[in-house]
Amino acid sequence: MSEITHTKLEEIKEKTDKYLVGNYKRQDIAFKYGVGEMLFDMDNKPYIDFLCGISVTNLGHSDADIIDALRSQADMLFHTSNLFYSEEAANLAEALVENSFPAKVFFCNSGTEANELAFKIARLHGIAQKMEKPVVLSLAKSFHGRTVSAMTITGQEKVRQGFGELLPDIDYITENDIDSLQAAFDRYQGRVAAFIMEPIIGEGGIIPISDEFAILARKLTQDENALLIFDEIQTGIGRTGKLFGYEHFNFQPDVMTLAKALGSGFPIGAVMVGEKYESLLTPGTHGSTFGGNHLAMRVAYETLKIIVGREILQHVNALSDFFFTKLNIMKTKYDILKEVRGKGLHIGLDFTIQAPQIAEECLRNGLVVNATAGSVIRIMPPLNISIEKVNEGLSILENVIAKFAKDSKTESYSVS
Questions:
Q1: Is the pTM of this model over 0.90?
Q2: How does strand 200-201 pair with strand 170-173?
Q3: End-to-end CA, the chain
C-alpha cells in the first residue's frame, strides 16, 4: 500500500511506534471520523465500511440516538460499582432476557471476559455434578479470546503457540463433522461439562455450523448433562439476520456470551445463564469492577432498542439476499473466488490466493474489509447500510478481484 504522506498521520504513527507495544500489524491509515456506513481518514478521504470494527459498530457510525443516550447518561453518572443497584443494568438485563430465553445476566467489559466466565461456569457445573476431571469441548477452528482460559478453549493452535502448557481437559472437534462430535462424547462419557461453539465460526473463516451438527450437539449435551454454550460475540445483535445466531436452530443454548455490537463500540460483554444453571454463580464466584457500569448499560440498551424497533433485521435479510446473489455471480466469473458462505451480513469469501493482499487493495480503493484464516475476506457491513453504498462497495470489491484474477493468469499466488 502506498504510504500516505499526511503530516498528522506520520505523527500518529511515530507516537504509536514509540509508546504502544507492537502486538498489532496496522494498516497505514488512521480514521478521523465516521458517518453512517462511511469512514474518513486524516485527509478526509471516504471509505465504505464493510467491517464495522470487526462486527462492532453494527448501526454504523454516529447514530444520533446512540450519541444522545451516551451524552444524557454521561451528564448523570459514569460508574458506581456493583456494590449498588443500577437502573441501567436492570433495564438492559430485562431487555436481553425478554428478547432471548429465560436466563440471568452477568455484565463485563469484553468478549474474552464473557468467555472466561463461561469457562468458569462449565467448571462449576462439572464439579457440582461430581465429574472426574470435567472436560470442555470446543471446535478446531474456533476463536474465543486471548485470556488463558479463552485461549485454551480456542481451537486454532496458532493462538495458543508460545505460551507453554495451558489448562488441562480441553479437546477440539472438527466443525460440522458429526462423527467427530459423537466420538468426543463417547471418549469422555460422563466427564463432558460443556461444549462451546460459535453458530458461525468467525475468525476461523466464516463457517456456518450445519443444522445437523448443531442439533446433535444439543442432543448429546442434554443426554450427558453437559452445558451447551453459544459464543455469540460476533454473531449476536442482528449480524446473522436474527437477533441471536442460536435462533437459526430450533433450540436454545444453556449459556450465551455476547459483546462487540451490544455496545455499538462502547466496551461491554455479557453472559446469559439459563435459569436451570443460574444458581451456579453465587456471591464471590465472579465479579467485575467496571462490568455493568452506567454508561455501557445505557448505550447497550439503546442499541438493542434500535435493532428491535427499527425493523433492522428485515433490512438485513433483504440485503443478505442481494449480497449473496451478487457475490455468487462474481464466483462464477473469477476462478480465484472458491466459495461464498455465511448468513445475514456475516459473509466470508474464500479465495485460492492470500486474502490480505485483497484487503489491502480494497483499502487503497476506499473499501474497508478484513482478511482472516489466510484466504478468507470477511464482509460485515453496518446492518442499516444503504443499497447504494452496498452497490458501490461491491463494485470496488469486484474490480479488485478482477485485478487479482487477471494477475493470477501470469503470476503464482499461493495460500500457505
A1: yes
A2: unpaired
A3: 21
Please say whether the beta carbons of 397 and 76 come within 8 A.
no
Per this entry, what is the length of the chain?
416
Q: What are phi and psi of 331, to 5 degrees?
A: -60, -35
CA gap 169, 265 in Å, rounded: 35
pLDDT of residue 411: 58
Comparing C-alpha atoms, which of 238, 289, 278 is closest to residue 262?
Answer: 238
- What single-letter amino acid sits at 117? L
Contact between residue 37 and residue 386 where contact means Cβ atoms under 8 Å apart: yes
Rounded to an integer, the average pLDDT of 60-85 is 97
Quick: pLDDT tens for 243-264.
Answer: 999 999 999 999 999 999 999 9
Average pLDDT along the chain:
95
**Taking residues 85-100, what's their average pLDDT?**
98
Cell 480465484 sits on residue: 336
Q: DSSP states of 90-104 as a string?
A: HHHHHHHHHTS-SEE
CA distances in angstroms from 32 to 3, 11, 61, 145, 362, listed in the order given: 17, 14, 12, 28, 19
